[in-house]
Specification:
This protein is an alpha/beta fold. It has 30 helices and 24 strands. The strands form 7 sheets. The chain has a 7-stranded parallel β-sheet with strand order 11-14-10-15-16-9-17. The protein has a 5-stranded mixed β-sheet with strand order 19-20-21-22-23. Strand 21, helix 29 and strand 22 form a beta-alpha-beta unit.
Length: 769
């Protein structure tokens, strides 16, 4: 919208500007549903969860319990919304699904859909799935004509709305046609269109009014780089050059296909020159974390596990008092408990932001009290967290150079553009909407295919480049990453010229020329007691291990909390499946059947390569399940899975989870940590089981029992124990580390073991490539 008015000011030289509205807002103003209100988007999962009560949803991969449904049904609405946009009924899909691949899933979703619509009707709400709205035509007739600037693809329902609008007033469409959107726009307009033009189309008459050639001398500089820091360094250098050459900072944009990359820019954005259009997630705030800690605390009280005795955000006296005052609510149900909780929090001025979020939620939900009658207080709090999860805080303190995701660039125009992470897998970025249906079936029922979605994203990038005077894309090239195949496509080569610059090291311009590490990387000294006090720090095995091995890595990862890119780790998925199997089933055969059923159900959740690795791991675990069956027959029983613990040791707080705790036939306790490595070897002086054994000693089940610990080598189906020498060394190392942690001033030095830097995500910050 801002870009539209900016262009019209230049075009008209000021004066009265035309009225302009975003497409979504305009559509919302047109829809009239008598005696009904639009359901707020955050309440949709609540209504769907209530609609699921009594419906067998386990075949979708989760049960219909309120919290489980909220947390695991995120893919249902995108699928239903997509069907509504494409004017496709589930019955249409079932008709074309001749091999009945999706029959059971579709039947369950159809039942959910009808139950959801019934609830909407009952409470006098409507949303985009409702089919009982009508168009309020006086709004359309108010205009002498309407001009629609089309960026992207239109759904069949949107095309139908355009036809309705055109029946009441002249409608003109502004759009540009390139190799990526030609086929779609031709189908939308119903007329043949030529690539390479910006068009004004009279929609009523299906007639082209004017055409202007798109920019043909588009050139892109593509830089092949070694790592993320090179991308940041090159960006800063280019921006500096452009500003020196007279380009206004307001006309420069950085586009991030992966918005999490912003964390790297923020590290070196010392003077806050960047303005992040997507803002900051509320989930990073103290208020959100406080509520999350409360939830964890209550969950620990309602399980058979040892309750947490201390929490990172509950160590201050005022916050501990809130817990004490609220304890009577922990077993309550309904919104009344939330109202009482808000009243308690209002007594603490430091928690005003927490109160603000809760009051906002309560305001929206108060009239729906009966839907919350049987929902426990802790699950209501969890729902509040889900409500807050996607909310963002606007970047009001940022500078003039905007940082955006690709969707925010639609319809905007900048002089100079930099796209970072122009890598395969990010440009175009895969969507998760194909979770149910393959591309062949989608095409049969006129749903967007994966190729359609990829072409849409490519169109956005091409439009951005075509409007800019300077365009730069950066990509990392290594054994895992390569440039987006979009660069190599003939469609793009027909439109623009791309010059690929060979790999160079640009980050030295950020950090200085490579030299001895103690000179280039400044010494960091800090007070650990200050960190623990101000950050409410609690050590896990991972953070303690990082502290022992490399204090600088500990500082970056756990003090500065610099996040690294999350990847799908097969071991974590296997851990989760085993936890589910051992929690819900008792016998080895039941556990084995459920485990492999989970793998089958996960097929649509991961890429083909990831799913292949998951299946491969499942094949190796067949030996594991045979060993488990033999142990079960001998009398071994599982007491706990993912057992959480927290304790204080010489003034230092530790927490974590033990993968599994078993009881042997002789009554001894066995601590188990799963390892999914083909060539697993026990690390010398590893602190993991030392911390775990101290935690296990607090269990009532371990009184007067011998405690032993084993790594479970899942690939070979055998338990591996540490030798006594290693165990003794680990205890000595823990004592030494505890003494070191008692020191107030700590120097966060680089490790001397450079082999530990080989796969460290922070090696670049330490100039250790």
């Amino acid at each position: 919208m801002q870009s539209f008015y900016k262009k019209n000011v230049k075009k008209n030289g000021g004066g009265i500007l035309p009225e302009a509205r975003l497409w979504g807002e305009f559509l919302q103003s047109l829809l009239l549903v008598p005696k009904k209100r639009l359901l707020p988007s955050f309440l949709r999962p609540l209504f769907l969860a209530k609609a699921a009560e009594g419906i067998e949803t386990t075949k979708l991969g989760f049960d219909s319990a309120f919290l489980n449904f909220l947390e695991h049904s995120h893919f249902i609405f995108p699928f239903l919304d997509e069907l509504a946009s494409a004017l496709v009924n589930i019955e249409d899909i079932q008709t074309h699904d001749i091999y009945d691949e999706y029959g059971e899933h579709l039947a369950i979703i159809q039942t959910l859909y009808h139950s959801y619509l019934y609830l909407l009707e009952k409470y006098n709400f409507y949303d985009k799935l409702s089919k009982n709205g009508e168009m309020y035509t006086p709004i359309i007739q108010h205009y002498d004509w309407i001009e629609f600037f089309m960026e992207g693809f239109l759904s069949r329902s949107e095309c139908k709305i355009l036809e309705k609008i055109a029946s009441f007033t002249p409608l003109y469409i502004h759009t540009s046609v390139d190799n990526y959107n030609q086929e779609h726009i031709q189908a939308t307009m119903g007329i043949p269109l030529e690539v390479g033009y910006r068009l004004l189309i009279h929609f009523n008459e299906k007639k082209i009014i004017s055409r202007q050639p798109l920019k043909r001398d588009i050139q892109i500089d593509a830089y092949e780089l070694k790592d993320a820091m090179d991308e940041v360094a090159l960006s800063i250098e280019l921006i500096h050059q452009w500003v020196e050459d007279g380009v206004s900072p307001d006309d420069i944009i950085i586009v991030l296909p992966d918005e999490s990359f912003a964390q790297y820019l923020k590290i070196f954005d010392t003077y806050r020159n960047f303005n992040y259009a997507f803002g900051e997630k509320i989930s990073t705030t103290f208020a959100y974390q406080f509520l999350d800690e409360i939830c964890q605390y209550i969950y620990s009280l309602n399980t058979d596990y040892l309750p947490y005795t201390e929490y990172s955000l509950l160590q201050k006296e005022s916050l501990q008092k809130v817990i004490e005052d609220s304890s009577v609510l922990f077993s309550k149900k309904g919104l009344g408990s939330l109202e009482s909780f808000i009243y308690i929090l209002q007594k603490e001025k430091s928690l005003y932001k927490v109160v603000e979020y809760l009051e906002e939620f309560y305001l929206y939900t108060n009239e729906l009290k009966e839907l919350f009658l049987n929902i426990p207080f802790v699950e209501i709090l969890k729902f509040v967290l889900l409500y807050l999860q996607d909310k963002r805080i606007d970047d009001t303190q940022g500078g003039r150079i905007r940082v955006m995701g690709i969707l925010e660039t639609r319809g905007v125009e900048f002089d100079s553009v930099i796209v970072l992470n122009f890598n395969e897998g990010l440009v175009p970025k895969p969507q998760e909407k194909d979770i149910f249906l393959n591309s062949l079936l989608r095409k049969k029922v006129n749903l967007p295919t994966r190729k359609d979605r990829e072409n849409l994203q490519k169109h956005y990038y091409l439009s951005l480049f075509s409007l800019a005077n300077k365009s730069v894309v950066c990509f990392v090239h290594d054994e895992k990453k390569s440039v987006s195949h979009m660069v190599l496509e003939q469609q793009l080569k027909n439109e623009i010229s791309i010059k690929i610059h060979p790999m160079q090291n640009y980050k030295n311009r950020l950090l200085g020329q490579a030299r001895e590490h103690q000179h280039i990387i400044p010494t960091i000294e800090d007070s650990l007691s200050r960190i623990i006090r101000e950050q409410n720090f609690i050590f896990s095995y991972t953070s303690l291990n990082d502290f022992v091995k490399c204090k600088r890595k500990f500082y970056y990862a756990h003090v500065q909390k610099l996040k690294t890119k999350e990847e799908v780790i097969i071991g974590s998925i296997i851990h989760h499946f085993l936890e589910q199997a051992y929690t819900h089933y008792q016998t080895p055969d039941e556990r084995r059947a459920f485990f492999y059923h989970q793998i089958q159900q996960a097929k649509g959740d991961y890429s083909e390569v990831e799913y292949f690795n998951l299946e491969l791991a499942g094949q190796y675990l067949k030996v594991f399940f045979e060993t488990e069956k033999q142990d079960y027959q001998k009398g071994y029983r599982t007491l706990f899975c993912e057992y959480p613990f927290q304790y204080n040791l010489e003034g230092i707080c530790f927490h974590g989870k033990i993968d599994r705790i078993d009881k042997a036939t002789d009554g001894s306790i066995i601590l188990i940590d799963y390892k999914l490595k083909q060539n697993f070897k026990i690390a010398t002086q590893d602190l993991q089981f030392t911390l775990y054994k101290i935690a296990a000693q607090q269990l009532k089940e371990t009184e007067d029992s011998k405690i032993s610990a084993f790594y479970y080598d899942l690939y070979h189906g055998k338990k591996v124990s540490e030798d006594e020498k290693n165990i003794q060394g680990s205890y000595e190392l823990l004592q030494t580390t505890l003494k070191e942690l008692q020191q107030d001033l700590i120097c966060f030095d680089l490790t001397e073991e450079k082999k530990d830097c080989l796969y460290c995500p922070y090696a670049t910050l330490c100039d250790r490539d």
